[in-house]
Amino acid sequence: MDEKTKPKNKKFLVLLILGLLFLIGGLLITYFSSAKQVTTRVVNTLSKNVVTLIDEATKKTGLEENFKTVQTLKINLQSDYFNALASMNPTYTTISKLLANLSNTENTITIIQDKNNKKRFISYDGKLAGNPLITSKQLIENATEYYYVSGVTPNYINNGNNNYFESLDSTTTNIENEKYIIEKVAESITQNLKDEYLEESYEGNNKKITFTLDEKSLVELTNNILKDLKSDSKANTIMTGYNKDFSKTKITQEDVKGLKTTKLNIYLDKLTLKVNKYELCIADTKIIYYEEKDKALVEFYTKDTLNQKLEVITKADKTEINILDSSNKSLGTISISKTKTNFDIVANIVSEGTNIDIGYNSQITNLKEGKSYDSSTTIKMNISSNNMTLINGTISLTGKTSNDTTINEDLSNSILASSAPETDALLNQKITNILITLMS
Fold first, then answer.
1. What SS3 class is residue 276?
2. What is the 3-state secondary structure (H, E, C) of 150-203?
3. pLDDT tens across 389-418, in order?
4. Is the C-alpha dihedral spanning 232, 237, 238, 239 positive or negative?
5. Rounded to the nearest 5 degrees, what angle is found at the Cα of 244, between the Cα atoms of 47 and 63?
6. Cα separation of 223 and 421, whole Å?
7. What is the CA radius of gyration of the chain?
8. CA 363 – CA 376 distance, rounded (Å)
9. What is the pTM (predicted TM-score) of this model?
10. Which of 257, 300, 370, 420 lies at a C-alpha separation of 20 to 30 Å from 392?
11. What's CA 222's distance to the chain center, in Å?
């Protein structure tokens, strides 16, 4: 062998050996990694993606924890379809009246949170044509919850302990708590996976992992997750803040009765263990997700028959979703775009004579970080079928948020919930009266 070629041959030999090692290693990982390890990896990846979405959706204003927000909800909806039906059949008059009355309501929502002093106040005031409909209030102060409903309680009702603020201190936020719970749930799922839930097989060039949950295993897994959350002091505190009876929460067979067996199939490349496809099966329904070049695809099946398909193309801050039928004919598009202060969704869908045009916009303006900002959320819709308008109009929520956390509520005459046993019956009657008013 020529001396000059020896180094090149040696280099080639080293690369060949490394290549074989990687190939053999990949095969060993694929064939000897358990279904549990693969499912664990998938669950952790999905958990991280959800946390990332929460981070991206959170608008940083400096007023996430200590703030006062006053919002006005306005509804303006019409329906030629129900108006026409009402003129021919009195049975439909209530729906026509409901839309008209909702469009004549005035709704004000106030939220005040003072994390530093562990106080939180929420109120809703509804009026119909200027006349009072309902006023409700909830106040958390000194780890105690109080509530008031006009026409139901003469004063504030002391509803006992509330641990909402126990999980919040100077170094934590609600968003961080939500992310912590998601991570803990994912961790618990992977720790409580049983071999009997999982099955592995091979289809063509894919290794297939099947994760099955029937009613029995769903109850078992869910209760194990609840047990893990309760045993983690931070998670337990957070969950108790949302539900004071969390420590007693338990899922029974009755809670899941009637739910169909769910199967999640994960298809992985034999050599690389890269996930090629997800397949979710519930009874006769099947949803398949996979990626192809620069787009993701979601397919919807019934009894193995393709019904619809979504093509999802994401570029920078914009996502385009093309809706296709089983023969790849376009049924419409959904466009999603976002910036730091603006979020838009525009949907245009046409199918079998039905036209659906929906627009959603949420934005923050006049932002003075840590001091104040204005916000608005608007939903516009126009749904028609065979040239008849089914529903048309807007729903809007506009508000002003500031750093004023003053709460002026008089609790001196509050009474214990145990001293007002008739409250539930009165509340049910109040709700019934409101519905009758709106539909007449």
1. strand
2. CCCCCCCEEEEECCHHHHCCCCCCHHHHHHHHHHHHHHHHHHCCCHHHEEEEEE
3. 889 999 999 999 999 999 999 999 999 988
4. positive
5. 60
6. 32
7. 28
8. 6
9. 0.76
10. 300
11. 19
